[in-house]
């Protein structure tokens, strides 16, 4: 690996950690973004210079998030991991699910708040407006992304 690839992996780990995830999961995802071949847990542990147990735990996390997928190689008993082919679509869908979950919580809670708790009513109402905006914008973003992907596919097929 060259310095740019190593730097990308390390910075991606920090970004992932900044979003509340484990740094090693971000590093594994960064590695998967750069590689075109599936890798075993041993391969990843060696490249990233971390324990196989840490890689195992975090590949399961990334697999559960829909960002990595498990695969096999004919004639080899090892389990391999690679970037999920729809990782970016899954990421966008998961972000929307989180927005909708908060929006549902706010919508359910607001009518149940005591009439004399004006601070909570005001704050939660404003937060609900914000999350409604985010959900609508996320839907528009998803439509634009699908249109862009379709156009790029048509160009590459032509």
TrEMBL record:
Keywords linked to the UniProt accession: DNA-binding, Transcription, Transcription regulation
Domain HTH marR-type residues, every copy: 31-77
Family annotation (SUPFAM superfamilies): Winged helix' DNA-binding domain (SSF46785)
Pfam families: MarR_2
Coiled coil: none
Molecular functions (GO terms): DNA binding; DNA-binding transcription factor activity
Protein name from the UniProt record: Transcriptional regulator
Lineage: Bacteria, Deltaproteobacteria, Bradymonadales, Lujinxingiaceae, Lujinxingia
